[in-house]
Specification:
Four copies of one chain form a homotetramer.
Chain A: E1 4-8, E2 15-21, E3 25-28, H1 31-42, H2 49-53, E4 58-62, E5 64-65, E6 68-70, E7 74-79, H3 83-90, H4 111-118, H5 124-130, H6 135-151, E8 155-163, E9 166-167, H7 176-185, H8 197-210, E10 217-224, H9 240-249, E11 254-259, H10 262-266, E12 276-279, E13 284-287, E14 295-296, E15 299-300, E16 305-311, E17 322-323, E18 330-331, H11 343-363
Antiparallel strand pairs in A: 1-2, 2-7, 3-6, 4-7, 5-6, 8-9, 8-10, 10-16, 11-16, 12-13, 14-15, 17-18
Amino acid sequence: MAIRYLTAGESHGPALCGIIDGMPAGIKVCEEDFTTLMKKRQGGYGRGKRCQTEPEKVEVLSGIIGGKTTGSPISLLIRNADYANHKHYMHPFDEPSPEGEIPIPLPGHADFAGAIKYGLDNCRIIRERASARETAIRTALSVPARNMLHTKNVTSVCLIESIGGAEGKVNYSLPESEIKKMVDKNGDLFLTMDSEIINVWKSLIDEAKKNNNSLGGTGCVIFYGLPIGLGSHVQADKRLDSIIAAAVMSIPAIKGFEIGYAKALSEKRENSTDGIKFDSEKNVFSRTSNFAGGIEGGMTNGQPLVLRFHMKPLPANSRSESVNLKTLQPAFPEAYRSDVCAIQAACIVVESVVYLALANEITD
Amino acid sequence: MAIRYLTAGESHGPALCGIIDGMPAGIKVCEEDFTTLMKKRQGGYGRGKRCQTEPEKVEVLSGIIGGKTTGSPISLLIRNADYANHKHYMHPFDEPSPEGEIPIPLPGHADFAGAIKYGLDNCRIIRERASARETAIRTALSVPARNMLHTKNVTSVCLIESIGGAEGKVNYSLPESEIKKMVDKNGDLFLTMDSEIINVWKSLIDEAKKNNNSLGGTGCVIFYGLPIGLGSHVQADKRLDSIIAAAVMSIPAIKGFEIGYAKALSEKRENSTDGIKFDSEKNVFSRTSNFAGGIEGGMTNGQPLVLRFHMKPLPANSRSESVNLKTLQPAFPEAYRSDVCAIQAACIVVESVVYLALANEITD
Amino acid sequence: MAIRYLTAGESHGPALCGIIDGMPAGIKVCEEDFTTLMKKRQGGYGRGKRCQTEPEKVEVLSGIIGGKTTGSPISLLIRNADYANHKHYMHPFDEPSPEGEIPIPLPGHADFAGAIKYGLDNCRIIRERASARETAIRTALSVPARNMLHTKNVTSVCLIESIGGAEGKVNYSLPESEIKKMVDKNGDLFLTMDSEIINVWKSLIDEAKKNNNSLGGTGCVIFYGLPIGLGSHVQADKRLDSIIAAAVMSIPAIKGFEIGYAKALSEKRENSTDGIKFDSEKNVFSRTSNFAGGIEGGMTNGQPLVLRFHMKPLPANSRSESVNLKTLQPAFPEAYRSDVCAIQAACIVVESVVYLALANEITD
Amino acid sequence: MAIRYLTAGESHGPALCGIIDGMPAGIKVCEEDFTTLMKKRQGGYGRGKRCQTEPEKVEVLSGIIGGKTTGSPISLLIRNADYANHKHYMHPFDEPSPEGEIPIPLPGHADFAGAIKYGLDNCRIIRERASARETAIRTALSVPARNMLHTKNVTSVCLIESIGGAEGKVNYSLPESEIKKMVDKNGDLFLTMDSEIINVWKSLIDEAKKNNNSLGGTGCVIFYGLPIGLGSHVQADKRLDSIIAAAVMSIPAIKGFEIGYAKALSEKRENSTDGIKFDSEKNVFSRTSNFAGGIEGGMTNGQPLVLRFHMKPLPANSRSESVNLKTLQPAFPEAYRSDVCAIQAACIVVESVVYLALANEITD
C-alpha cells in the first residue's frame, strides 16, 4: 500500500477536501505550486463563468511543514465561494429549501442513473458530487507527486489534438523542449502545437456557445524521462496501462483512452513493433520507433509515455428531452451555464491523475 | 471488499492457477460451463498451434461442491501439457538448462522492459509470465460470475469489428437475439455480423501468416439487462467506466478502450446526449439513443453497455531488430510460433474480465 | 470496497481532517451527535490540560446535507486551537523556527523509531502525527456509523475494568440497561460499574500525577444487538476478530486485545464452549454462556460482542533516560504536560473504531 | 500494493491452494524448506490422527524456477489425502450424498453462525472452510517470506508459555541462541524453555484426552534482527502492531493478542518505558529494557519483537448441548477426532503469518 487518496466535496457545498496518504517525506512544495496549477486548470478558451469566479485557494491542513512534505498524510481544503449562493439547500444540518431541487435529470449527466440508484425524485445530491468540480481537488493533490517526479527528471507536456472533430497538427517526434515551446505559445487560448487551428477552434466554440451547444475533443499527455520497468506484467492489476486507464477513465466526460495511437496500431499490416538498439559508447539502449507509446508488457520501456483520451461534449447545455421524476411527465431540463469546451482543463486533470499514478509506482 | 482474485502460472510452467474470493454461495456451475468457455477461447481463424494442443482442462480444487458455489474461495487449476517439453528449464527446483535462455528480447513483448527491471540478460521468466496464456485462467475464473449474472438476466454478445483495418459491418440497433444469431452463424471462423467480410479477413490472415506477420483489430462486447446504477459517481475509483477500463486494458496487446464510440462522440457538433422517456403503461424509462454506451456519471444507465477495444498485432513474429543482452550486439529475436490473429480470443477474455468486474459491482 | 477512511493532521498543525467513503445515504446525523461524542472523549478523571482547552468543534465539509448522509464521501474538519501557539514551526510553508525542535526522543513514544526511520535528529514531525490527538478525528468519523447501527438496534456500552492494576467489579451478565445505568452514574469521573473503586482510582491518579507518572489500564466495550454472521470464515482477512483487533490495536498505547476473556479461556480445563438452545415459542436461538465473547469462526454469533483491551501508561511523563540525537550525548527528554490516565478516552475511541468496522461489515 | 495472498480449499475437499503475489525475485527456496516446515506444524504432543496421516506434500505450481523466486506470483498446492474418504459429498459437481450432512452445529466452531448466515440446515460447507486445516497452506506460503527475512538476518523463536493454565518458566533476557537451544531440546513434545513442565503438560493432555476434552494455552513468538522503522505511525492501518494483530487474530481459536506483556504493562505504577542509550564506540543505540515488546508508535524499534497469543481449547470434543437445525430439537453434536491440544501448531502458524506480514513491510 503505497500512495492512496480520497477526495470529498460537493460542487456547491462548503468545500472540496482531499487526503493523500503515502507521499514520501522531503519533497519540496511551495504555495505557488498550487496557485500556478489551479490557475492552469481554470484556463482555456470556452470555459464557463463558474470556473473563473472560484478563487480555487488551496489550504494545506497537514502533511507539509516548512515547505517540505513530512511523510504524514497531506490534506488539502478548497472552499467553494459559490456555497454562499446555495447554502439554503446545501447546509449540512439545516432543512434544505425546495428551491434547490432538480426534478428533471439532465441527459448525459449522472442525474438519471443516480436518482434511480438511490430512489430519488431530486437529482441535486447526485449532480453535486458527480460534477467535474471534484477534479479541482484531485488536481491539487497531484502537486507533491508532480514535484517528486520532477526531481527524478520526469517531465510532461499536455495538449489538445482535436476539438469538435477539427484536428490540430502534431509532431511528437520533435524534441520535448520544442513541443513545449510551441504549446506554451498558444496556451492562453489552447494548448496546441498548431497555431493555424486556433481560429478554427475559436469559431467552433463561439458557434457552439451561440447554439447552447458544447464540444468535446481529443487530448494527449506525454511523459518524458520515466525509468524503465514501472508497472508490472506479473498480475493484471499491476499493469501500468491498466492503472493509467483507470485513472484517466475516472474523469467525468472522458469516454475513450489510448496508449499511443491504439486504433491506428490495430490497423497496421506491416511491422508494428519498436526495434531495440544499444549504443555502446553512451552505454544506453534506444528504440527505432514508439508504436507502443512507451509501454510494453504493462511496463514503461524507456520511451516517452504517450496517453490519448477522447472527451464527449459536456451535457450541461443538453437539449435532449427528459422526464420530471416527480410528475413522470415529459420535460426539458434547465440548461445550466457551464463550459462550452473543457478539453483544456481535462488535459491538466489527466496529467494530474497520471502523475499520482506514476508517483505510486515509483514509491511502491 | 467483495470479489477479488489472483492468478498465477507461467506459460510453460507446471500449471496455471487462480483463486477467486467473494463469489456468493448457491450459484449453479457445471463442468460443461468450463469446457464450453475454454473451447470458445481457443477458437477463431488464425490461431497458433499451441492453443489447439493444450487440453485446457479446468480442475476445480475448492469453492464448488455438488455443482453449486459455497461462498468459499474458488480455486481452479489448468495443467500446462506443454510443460513436459520445457521441464528442463522450468522446474521449480532443478537447475535450469541453458537451452531455455532467451538472451534476445522480442520487441513488442515484455522481454526488454522486464529484463531491465529485474537486471536480467535472459528474458525467459519475464516472457513466461507476461504471456497472454495467463488469460486462460482469468477466463476460467469468470464462469461463476457469468452464471450469477445470467440468473439476473444479464447477457452479452461479443464480436470483431475490424481486423487489420478491414471493417466488418455492424448494426447494434438490432435486437440482441438477432445480433447473436448473426454472430453465431460465422463464429467458427470469426465472430462477426458481416458474412461478407469473412473472406477478406481470411485472406488478410493467410497473407500475414505467409509473411510471418500478425494482425490486430478492434473488438466489441455488449452487455444487456444490467440494472441501473452499477458503479458510482462518488469516488474516482468507483466509476464503472474506470473499473472496466482497468480490467480490459490489463489484457496483453490491448492498447485502446472506448465506452460506446468515444472517438466519434468526441467529434460531435450536434446534440450528443440520450433523451429520457417514460412509458406510463409499462412503467419503464427508456432512452432515445445510446451515445453514452450505457454509462452516465460512472454508473450503468439501463441501456446496453457497449465496450470497444483496440488490439495491436501480436509481436510474436516481430521482425524488428533487437539486441543480445549477453553480448550487447545487434541480433534478431527468434520469431516463435504463435497466433497470427488473436482478436477473437481477446473478445472472450474481455467479456470474461468484464463479467468479473460486473459481478463485483452487483455483490458489492 | 465498502467503507474506508483516511485521517490527516498533526497534533499542533492547522487542523485534523478525515474523509470517510462508502457510508450509505439517508442516515440521520445532527450537529449534537458530534458535540456530545467529542465531549465524551474529552472526559474522565486525570486528563491533561490540552484536551480540555481544545474546542473540538467538528465542521462537516461534505457528505451530509440537511441532516442526512447523501452517500457521497463525508469529510470532517477539526481546527487545532493550539496551532496558534505552534505556528512558528508548524506552518506549511514558512521556515520553521528551531524553537520547535525535539532533539531528545521520548522513550515509549514514536520519536525514536520514527527519527531513525526518516533519518532525522528532530522528532517534531514524528511526534506530531504519532500523537493520540489523531484519534479525535477518528472518533468524529464514527458518528454516522454509530447512527446507522443504532437504527439497526445495535447499541454498546464501554467501561474501565482496571487502572494501574486496581480492578473494578464488573458483572456482564446483568441486562444492558442496568449496566448502562451503573456506568453512567459514575461517568463524569470514571466509566465503571463499581462505585467503590472510584476513590481508589482517584488517589492512584493523584499520586501518579504528583510523581510525574502516568497510569494505564484495561477497558471493555460490549456491543448488543448485532445480527448473526457479520464477518466471515472464508478468508483470513475477513474474520471479524481479525478486523476488530486491527482497529483496536491501531490506537496509540493499546498493547493487548482480547475477545471476551481470552486469557482465562486459554486456561480452562472444563467445557469451554457455549451451548445452543432453541426456543420454539419465541422462535429464537439462545446460548447457555458467552465464553466466545460473541464471535465463533470469525463471525458474530448473536451474543453480546465483548472486546477488552490493555493500555500501557502514557509515556508523556516518562523519566527514562534518552539520547540527544544531535549530540549523541545522554539526555533526559522534556517531560510534557499530558494525560495522567487516558483509559476513559481510549474506551470511547475503541468503541468508535469498532463501530466503523461493524458498519463496514453491515454494508459490505 | 506489495505482498498479498489468498488461500482456498476445504478441509476434506480435493486440495488446499494458495497464491502469493508480490514476493521479490531471487529468493532461494528449496523443496526441503517446505517439507521441514510442514513437518514442524504437524508436531507436538496431543495432536489428532488426521494431522499425522496427511502427507502435507507441497507442490509448487508457479513463481519458483530453479530454486529461486522469479517475482511472479507463487502458487502452491497441497492435495488432501483424506478427500478420498469424503469424495461422495465433497465432489465439485457430483450430487452430494446425505451422509455428509452435519445438521447439529458444534458449539465453539463456525457451524452455527455460518449456517444462520447462509440459511443452511447443514453445517458441512461451513465447517469445511472454517477448519484450521486452512492454516497448512498459509504456513506453506510463508516459506519464501521466511527465507527472504533470514537473508536480512531476521530470525525467530516460538514457544509455548502455558497449557491449560500450567505455566512453563521462560527467560527472554537470555541470548537468542540459548533460548533456541533450550526450546529445540524439548521440541518433539513441546516447544518450551522449561524441561520440568513437560510432564505436567503431558499428563494434562492425557487426562483431557481421556475425558474427551481439549486444552488451550498461551504461546509466544520472538523476532530478532528486525530493522528499526517497520510499520508506520502515519495512518491507523499502517501501524505494525495493528497489522500483526490482524494476522494473528485471523488464526482459528486464537482469542487474545499481546505485544510484549500488555496486561502486566497496563498494571505498572512505576516507570514503564525503555531508556535509550548510545554506544559511541560501536556506534549503535540500545535500550535499557523491552517493556514495549519491540514496537513504539506502530514501528519496530530495534528490540526483539515479542508477540504473545491466547488460544482457546479446540471445540472438536465439545460436550455442550446443541440443536438439530433440521428438526430444531435439542441434540448433541457428534464429537469428532481432532487435536487435544494444538498450541504447538499454533506457534508455527503465528510465526508464519507474522513472517508474511513482515515481508510485506520490508518490500513495501
